[in-house]
Amino acid sequence: MDQEEIPAMTDVSSQGPRPDDRRDVLTNRQGHRIYDNQNQRTVGARGPATLENYHFLEKISHFDRERIPERVVHARGFTAYGYFEAYGKWGDEPISRYTRAKLFQEEGKRTPLALRFSTVIGGRDSSEAARDPRGFAVKFYTEDGNWDLVGNNLAVFFIRDAIKFPDVIHALKPDPVTFRQDPNRIFDFMSQTPEAMHMLVNLFSPRGIPADYRHMQGFGVNTYKWVNESGETVLVKYHWIPKQGVKSLTEADAAAIQAHDLGHASKDLHEAIERGDYPEWELVVQMMSDEEHPELDFDPLDDTKVWPENDFPPQPVGRMVLDRNVDNVFAENEQISFGTGVLVDGLDFSDDKMLVGRTFSYSDTQRYRVGPNYLQLPVNQAKSTEVRTNLRDGQMTYHVDGRGENPHVNYEPSINGGLRESQYPTHDEQGPLIEGRVTRKRIPRTNDYKQAGQRYLLMDDWERDDLVDNLVTNLKQCDRPIQERMVWHFLLVEDDLGLRVGDGLGIAPDDVKHLKPLQSQDLTDEDRQRLANLG
Ligand code: HEM
Fold first, then answer.
1. What global pTM score does this model have?
2. Most buried of 18, 189, 228, 318, CB within 10 angstroms?
């Protein structure tokens, strides 16, 4: 070895800390102090490098693994913490009449929570000003364990059966060949999916681009149940109403923002919390008895429908305040994991066919995306109660979950200690008795157009203009048969919408009257009447 090439000791120490530097000393993950974080260990000053470079190899190989798969949907998001404060009531009635969930019972009771807002289709670094639903996922750390309310900013969804989810997402995601989001692919799928019309009327209206995360509503979308102390159940829908008001962007506003900032909504939320301007939402709940409700012209378990507020008035049950930012985006925003199966005593699923599919999908993807022990990570742990399980081992086991006094017993039942079952809270559930043949059928009351039409009529003039403009701009990029089928659907939604979109595309009702209803749809009498009017 050429002694001349070894740097003199004075050179090394000149890079070290000044005697008055009081900052903490860098170590590796083994707790070893790092003396030189600038130079690899090499044979002579000019190399070659040696393989026993433990610090360098650990540093670079950890870096190589810094990314985990991004979420297959809702990849771009931002998380903040806060609390939920219960009113103890559902409107004027004691809430205990309907649910025994502890977090709701006492007026003023606070439950800590984390909330992750997101966009759906774009990747992790995509624009937050995209026309796209926004995720609104809340994790309540309750004394009975975690409750996740995984919602969106729009009250309805594109599809009503979970089996179609991979298809709707493939259509909305970039083309697998060109890697561009393509209106022709999106509307190809939507034109064959009549239940999507209600969502499309919302998504292409100004509500499809919320101004930021603080100024948007949140909706549980799917139908859930509440269970009271006697085991009686009711159907419920959850909505979050922002105290800040609702604000949206036009396509032009959004284009101007994303020209210089892809993350304006995260920035807005982060900065508001930093300056102590804490955003707040009220949680309001709609309720109906746990039955099929044949008197309604829609199915209460259909997530392409809203429940009319006149008939099912939303009643406040509490408020949520966000008052703390994350310390680390990766640990707390990328690894946070929500799911619709994460319910506490007093809350339950309904038979909504989307909800059951979602409930499988979330924890399945999280075992793949984050790892089998994702629930041991601090952001996902139940914080307000003790966790004691017989789940053991697996990649990245962080600790042994709470266990009984005898560490040998990691099974149940046992007469040698270990964990025991809890006593069942009260009576068995008293939901409806259901029977039927195992089948693959659509729900009976699909009524795909009526609520979409009502939504259109409820809009202000400028919102209708914006909706029509956005639809025409996108549909102009589609093939003629897709345009025709979409105009046909919009004529069934509301004459005015169909005529205006058709006008923008050069398609008159006469041009689409030859189209037959799709095999995948049922028409109501009103739909048939509208079709007859076409001819
Ligand atoms: C995220 C599946 C419908 C709201 C996700 C993820 C999956 C998924 C796999 C990624 C989760 C992760 O990587 O941690 C499904 C399926 C659906 C469905 C299979 C239909 C059958 C919906 C609906 C809503 C919704 C209707 C709104 C009510 C969300 C939200 C997130 C999400 C907010 C992001 C959660 C977060 O911030 O980590 N969904 N989803 N999803 N989904 Fe769904």
1. 0.93
2. 318
